[in-house]
């Protein structure tokens, strides 16, 4: 070869970074994995999806199989759901993407030039955070307590950044049934967060993947519903309420943001076939009925896991019982390392996500673990928690 | 609002550019549009796709509906098809994307820093070329004649660029049944092009969307099949041989390129559900049988259009009869402007793509038009060509 390929690559990809999505979805088979927030396959509405696909192919083949835009009817359904929760949503403010992961990866592309500041929660969903880093963002982490993001700490940080002349490009938060901690931001903090966003002109990226999966208590307004000035970028997904493998998520934001997301969304709008299948499935109240079933089902599995933790873990292990979502976050007893416990748990046939995998900065999270009750059956949850509980004696 | 949003956007999206894909797929309804290369809906294998979707949901729901990677079995099918045409393909050198349009939009993201040189054909497929421009590429255009890209002009250009110390990031070509001209690069020119790529260390992006749709003559080896040194990046799609709305395309290239494409592919690998549906449909020789039917069908429509052009257009309008693909490119008689003719044709109820829409630089292509025989029925093709033929008298 007379010339090398390497010198041809653009600056942003000269160094190869490992892939960010996908591999996490493959738990090692022999283990009972409580590590990942996979959906429960027992609840996939296979027959109804089959019917939806058949109807699309029977009645909408010309529009769904040819070159065409994303199906506007799906956007209308998303708008209707947003309006039902109090957001003054408009169709032209919604963009459908291939999963909310795609939306979360495109947002830094439109906001971040190298060196820009992005505010995240600690702990958080690193699948999204790693994309912010890849775009060159400087991260600032705000702690999360049992009431959600520490908004007082956020106010201090915003003030300090402003004093340095730094305006964050956005604040990334998972306010409802937070990943990984399961906690929910209180109403008072929600109001404070939205007010801070407006005061500092800092968009809030509200990742509400778990919002619909409430087991107990009253719904709180989303940040988007509280926002009067358009600073909230609301990201949602069908992955938790229908099926991740269909790869459908969405974003609601100001039109200027939607226009720019479409510029960096390499493939244009999301496929006409898959968006029609999801819309057909979801019509006539079917999605809402399915969500009601999911809430009952996941609530039961959450209770099974919590009871198993109380039974098998040392009394010093503490957790906040989540009111919804996919995860229980357990603070380990003093002196127990999540990494060490993970090795012992794997030797006993179970695994979890160590807290270190939820912090962008090294040196945090070794005192906590994330346990997903979403994927495994109640029987396997019980067995997995028992195995992890036994592992405490090994470390 | 205390602060504006606009100053927050990253440099690359500060100015909004219009969306690049999608809108073209919506011909104005009352017209007979011969403008766009849509697939013929009469040939969508609806029942077989329905069966494939039902089988995936019946037998592979757990793997296709949850978080998972793109289906490896589809990659294996792509590799098998590439090997059958003589490419030494490996699965780890293939990436499946949401249409070849996505792949063509991601390639500049991994190769182009602002000011870099990209070589294109004139005329070409502007849907791809506009993405190169958006990444900041300086375009250099090589003319296309009835034997495909003018490889002698390319050699001169590469030499001149090298003298200036400029190495092109890639050369974009549609060698087989070219969009828009329908011509096919000769075997001799193919060999020359591959040799030039190796000599100058310039990757060739081979967009072979139409390769399988040959009506007459013998197949020629793809550039990828001739390439011994890994300079050819072969891009393919299921849009022309199955259905565009499924949004499945792919790329075969050196592993270093695949790794970087995955870095900029925001959503990770392509959805497990849709990739399994396409693989199930395509299995057991079904795709090859379908392609055989498509070849006969599109060949007939091409002949219908060619005969109609001979009957209705002025004798001075000239075209090269394509041996495959979706398009006939007609050179207009001296003094007839494509733009003027388009207005007259629309007034008579038909439309085409003016040649100007196929050149990146202004001032080219007003002497030619692209006519797509792919979408309309033979009857409508005849009516549309008659209407455009009548419009010549109006200009």
> How many helices of chain A?
13
Strand order of the largest sheet of chain A: 2-9-8-7-6-3-4-5
Return the CATH topology of the largest domain in chain A: Aspartate Aminotransferase, domain 2
Largest interface: A-B, 95 and 95 residues
What are the key terms here?
homodimer, 395 residues, alpha/beta, Aspartate Aminotransferase, domain 1, Aspartate Aminotransferase, domain 2, 4-stranded antiparallel sheet, 39% helix, 14% strand, globular
Describe the protein's architecture and organization:
The structure is a homodimer of 395-residue chains. With 395 residues, the first copy, chain A, is α/β, with parallel strands linked by helices. Chain A folds into two domains: 27-44 and 288-394, Aspartate Aminotransferase, domain 1 (Alpha-Beta Complex), CATH 3.90.1150; 46-284, Aspartate Aminotransferase, domain 2. Helix content of chain A is 39%, strand content 14%. Chain A contains 13 helices and 14 strands. Chain A has an eight-stranded mixed beta sheet with strand order 2-9-8-7-6-3-4-5, sandwiched between helices. In chain A, β4 (138-145) and β5 (148-149) form a beta hairpin. Chain A is globular. Residues 20-28 of chain A have low confidence and may be disordered. At the A-B interface, α1, α2, α4, α7 and α9 of A face α1, α2, α4, α7 and α9 of B.
């Amino acid at each position: 070869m007379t010339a090398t390929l390497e010198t041809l690559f653009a600056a942003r990809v000269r160094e190869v970074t490992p892939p960010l999505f996908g591999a996490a979805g493959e738990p090692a088979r022999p283990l009972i994995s409580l590590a990942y927030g996979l959906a429960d396959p027992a609840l996939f509405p296979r027959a109804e999806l089959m019917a939806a696909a058949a109807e699309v192919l029977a009645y909408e083949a010309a529009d769904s199989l040819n070159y065409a835009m994303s199906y506007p009817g799906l956007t209308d359904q998303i708008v209707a759901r947003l309006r039902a929760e109090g957001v003054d949503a408009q169709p032209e403010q919604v963009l459908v993407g291939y999963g909310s992961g795609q939306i979360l990866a495109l947002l830094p592309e439109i906001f971040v030039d190298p060196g820009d500041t992005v505010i995240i929660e600690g702990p958080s969903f690193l699948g999204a955070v790693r994309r912010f880093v890849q775009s060159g963002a400087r991260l600032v982490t705000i702690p999360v307590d049992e009431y959600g993001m520490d908004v007082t700490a956020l106010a201090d940080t915003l003030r300090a950044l402003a004093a340095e002349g730094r305006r964050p490009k956005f604040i990334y938060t998972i306010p409802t049934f937070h990943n990984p901690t399961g906690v929910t931001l209180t109403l008072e903090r929600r109001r404070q967060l939205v007010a801070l966003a407006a005061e500092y002109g800092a968009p809030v990226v509200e990742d509400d993947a778990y919002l619909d999966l409430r087991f107990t208590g009253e719904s709180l307004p989303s940040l988007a519903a509280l926002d009067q000035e358009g600073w909230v970028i609301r990201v949602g997904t069908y992955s938790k309420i229908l099926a991740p493998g269909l790869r459908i998520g969405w974003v609601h934001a100001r039109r200027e943001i939607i226009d720019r997301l479409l510029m960096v969304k390499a493939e244009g709008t999301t496929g006409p076939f898959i968006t029609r299948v999801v819309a057909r499935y979801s019509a006539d109240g079917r999605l809402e009925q399915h969500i009601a079933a999911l809430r009952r089902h996941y609530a039961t599995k959450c209770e099974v896991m919590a009871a198993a933790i109380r039974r098998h873990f040392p009394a010093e292990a503490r957790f906040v019982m989540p009111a919804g979502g996919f995860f229980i976050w357990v603070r380990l007893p003093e002196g127990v390392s999540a990494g060490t416990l993970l090795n012992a748990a794997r030797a006993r046939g179970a695994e979890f996500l160590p807290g270190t995998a939820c912090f962008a900065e090294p040196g945090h999270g070794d005192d906590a673990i994330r346990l997903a009750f979403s994927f495994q059956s109640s029987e396997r949850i019980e067995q997995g928690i028992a195995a992890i509980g036994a592992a405490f004696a090994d470390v």
